[in-house]
Amino acid sequence: MRVDVATPPTTDLVSLAISPDGQKIVFVATSEGRSRLWLRSLSSDSARPLEGTDTAKLPFWSPDSRSVGFFADGKLKRIDID
Questions:
Q1: What 8-state DSSP symbol labels residue 65?
Q2: For residue 47, which of 57, 39, 35 has the smallest C-alpha distance?
């Protein structure tokens, strides 16, 4: 399978993760001068920013695909996707 994902601009090309269920991706991108995580369902053409994820890096999914862990502000953080 090949997937093309158009994202907002980013300088962090390695901060991308595919959910274990294969349904979603999360990635770091910059919009409105803020770098944060964005979520996209692979069944959709658009992505949405995830609030509370400013300066996020190196995202990773929980095994059940319901939350994303990431590093920001020198800490390990987690956000529920639902």
A1: S
A2: 39
